Amino acid sequence: MADRPEQPRETSESEVQWRTAGDRIQTLLDSCAAGGTAAYERAQQLVREVVGLYGAGLDRIVQMGDPGLTERLATDDLVASLLLVHGLHPHDVHRRVSDALDRVRPYLGSHGGDVDLLEIVDGDTVRLAFAGSCKSCPSSAVTLELAVEDAVRAAAPEISTIEVVAAQPASEPSVIPAESLLAHVHSNGSTVHANGSSWHPLPELAELEPGDVGGFLVSGTTVVVCRVGDLPLAYVDHCPVCDDSLAGAQLRETLLGCPRCGTQFDIVHAGAGPDGAHLAPLPLLLRDGVPSVALAEPTGARS
Question: What is the annotated signal peptide range for this record (predicted)?
Answer without folding.
Answer: none
